[in-house]
Design goal:
Elements: E1 2-6, H1 15-21, H2 50-59, E2 63-69, H3 76-89, H4 92-95, E3 99-101, E4 112-115, E5 128-131, H5 140-148
Parallel strand pairs: 1-2, 1-4, 2-3, 4-5
Length: 151
C-alpha cells in the first residue's frame, strides 16, 4: 500500500479565496500575514474536484491516505479549525485520526506528498512531491490520473 499525504490549504481548501473574502484581510496586523486571520481556516471552501478526488483516494485499497498540513504557530485556533474542516467535508470513518499538523513535512515517511508549496519541508520530502498547481499537476484530475497509473 502506498502512503499519500495531502496538504489542506491550496490543495483541498481554497485558502486564497478565503483570504480575499475575509473582512479583516486588509486590516493591520493581518496585512501580509493572512495565516493569522481569525476564523479563516474554519470556513474555507473546497477547491474544485478536491473532495471527490480525495474520497476516491481514501476509498482506494492501494493507498493509505493522510492529511498533512501546517498550522500557523501564532494562530492556535487554526489548529482546531483544520481538524473541524476535515470532519465537515469527509466521512469520519475514513478520516478519523488521519490529520497530521507539522512544520517539518520532510520528516514523515511516505510515497507521495500532494502540496502546492515547497515550504515546511515539502520540497525535501523523501518520497515523490506532487506539486499541486504546477504545470505537471495543475488540478485534481491530473493528480488522480498520475496516481491511478502508478499502481
Amino acid at each position: 500500500m502506498k502512503i499519500i499525504y495531502i496538504d489542506l490549504d491550496g490543495v483541498v481548501a481554497d485558502f486564497e479565496k478565503g483570504r480575499i473574502a475575509h473582512p479583516m484581510s486588509s486590516v493591520s496586523p493581518y496585512i501580509g500575514r493572512p495565516d493569522k486571520l481569525p476564523g479563516l481556516y474554519e470556513n474555507l471552501e473546497p477547491i474544485s474536484n478536491a473532495i471527490e478526488s480525495v474520497n476516491q483516494l481514501l476509498s482506494n485499497s492501494d493507498f493509505d491516505v493522510y492529511f498533512l498540513s501546517t498550522a500557523p504557530w501564532d494562530n492556535p485556533e487554526a489548529w482546531m479549525h483544520k481538524r473541524l474542516w476535515v470532519a465537515k467535508y469527509f466521512d469520519e470513518k475514513l478520516i478519523r485520526k488521519r490529520l497530521i499538523l507539522s512544520h517539518h513535512k520532510q520528516l514523515l515517511k511516505g510515497d507521495f506528498l500532494i502540496d502546492d508549496r515547497k515550504f515546511n519541508g515539502a520540497s525535501e520530502f523523501q518520497g515523490k512531491w506532487i506539486h499541486f498547481g504546477s504545470d505537471l499537476f495543475p488540478d485534481w484530475i491530473s493528480v488522480l490520473k498520475y496516481l491511478n497509473n502508478i499502481k
